[in-house]
Amino acid sequence: MAGGRVQGKIAVITGGARGIGAEIGKILTAEGATVVAADLAPADGVPTAAEGGPAAYRRMDVTDEASVRAAFDDIAATYGRIDILVNNAGVPGPIKPSHEVEEKEFDLLFDVDVKGVWLCTKHAVRHMLEQRSGSIVNMSSIYGLVGGAHIPLYHAAKGAVRLMTKADAATYATSNIRVNSVHPGSIETELSKSLSAAPSPEAAAYAQRMLDNTPVGHRGTPEDIAYAVLYLASDESRFVTGTELVVDGGYSAV
Q1: CB 5: neighbour CB atoms within 10 A?
Q2: What is the mean pLDDT of each run of 10 residues along the chain (254 residues)?
Q3: Backbone φ/ψ region at 147: left (φ over 0), alpha (ψ -120 to 50), beta
């Protein structure tokens, strides 16, 4: 049910065409925001505004600064401002120990999950500084908070996002720009389903271990994450910056 919690705000969601990003867009739209989904996925699969989807789709490669700059400048010119940035685009990286990871796998993971967050923040903040307001929500992970075997580079990347969030929160607070991170646990997405059904024993075991170590006994949903983002994006969280909102069913509590 629409409640207008982000009424009239302009929101950009990277990786907004599907999965958790699409659900965030749906919730923000229902709560009154004008949402632009920025993604590399084909526009054909993105729901229209009439279907509860974003107001617009903008093709953007978060690893390419020219693409990012052009997208944010175009969005700001079209809508007059950028109030919310959700840095949601990300890749999981290889499920294997450090000594088995290839350099190209490392580069791809850090290009998307770390460099992408930095580039989008850089070019959204330019506009937020002019209007002296804004909310940035970075998608980290519980694996940006705790360690674990099998996916060390993902831990490292999400840990980088966590600390980038805190540094940017401190930097931009005097300009009324808030920066926070969300840390999902095991969420029921196409990725988690594919891992559970993966032919790789390591991938399937990883997905099952995540579920087994979640005290509530079930995975979360993209909607659970979207409502966490909604709170941080809205003015309800006006005194919240540099924080870590953990949405993990108790995984990191034990």
Answers
A1: 19
A2: 85 95 95 96 73 85 98 97 98 90 97 98 98 98 89 95 98 98 91 61 76 92 98 98 97 90
A3: beta
Burial of 167 (C-beta count, 10 Å sphere; 0-12/13-18/19+)? exposed
Residue of 67, 95, 78, 69 whose CA lies nearest to 206: 95
State the Cα–Cα distance between residues 12 and 88, nearest whole angstrom.
10
Judge whether 154 counts as a catalytic residue.
yes
User: Both tokens of residue 78?
Assistant: 């079209």
Contact 18, 93 (CB under 8 A): no
Catalytic residue, candidates 143, 154, 172, 251: 154
Write down the residue that tokens 């992408």 correspond to: 116
The encoded tokens of residue 221 equal: 């949903």
C-alpha 75/C-alpha 92 separation (Å) is 28
